[in-house]
Design brief:
With 155 residues, this protein is an alpha+beta fold. 34% of the residues lie in helices and 14% in strands. It has one domain. A hairpin with a 5-residue loop joins strand 3 and strand 4. The structure holds zinc ion.
Length: 155
């Protein structure tokens, strides 16, 4: 599944007069696609603090690099993490080989094991959740070797 990178939050500026109708439509589509992310950024301001950094400072500049189907999973994970690690910040959230990958900053070395066991649990859940719609699915590999988790409807 090909994903376009939305430079999100800081990039969406409504200088409408600059847009041709086609470009405006594309912009609105991107905006719509990233709305679930903004909701999470607002709900967990500390965890998503790095979304306000520049592209050379944090990968979170690009927002959450997964499909919207995993939004509930990421919401649940953020809820759990924000309670157990109040200072933690996401450094990157992406999909790799059909699995959710999460990197976190600002957690002390002695808390890493506890943190990793929580993240692992959500990584396992992601491997059986359709990245597009959030329904139950299995990891599959397409003809060109791309591994993804999508249900039959979203393939
Ligand atoms: Zn699906």
């Amino acid at each position: 599944m090909k994903k376009y990178k939305v430079p999100l939050h800081k990039k969406i500026k409504y200088t409408l007069h600059k847009y041709t109708p086609r470009r405006l439509l594309l912009r609105l589509k991107q905006w719509n696609a990233s709305r679930w992310q903004y909701r999470l950024f607002k709900k967990y301001p500390t965890l998503f603090k790095q979304t306000s950094l520049g592209k050379h400072e944090s990968c979170m500049y690009w927002g959450i690099e997964t499909g919207a189907g995993w939004s509930k999973l990421i919401d649940d994970m953020s809820n759990e993490l924000s309670h157990k690690f109040p200072h933690a910040e996401y450094a990157q959230i992406k999909e790799k080989f059909g699995i959710l990958r999460v990197y976190i900053d600002n957690v002390s070395a002695d808390q890493r094991d506890k943190l990793n066991s929580i993240i692992e649990r959500y990584e396992v859940l992601s491997s059986e959740t359709c990245e597009v719609c959030g329904l139950k699915a299995t990891r599959t590999q397409n003809d060109i070797g791309w591994i993804s988790v999508t249900c039959n409807k979203c393939k």
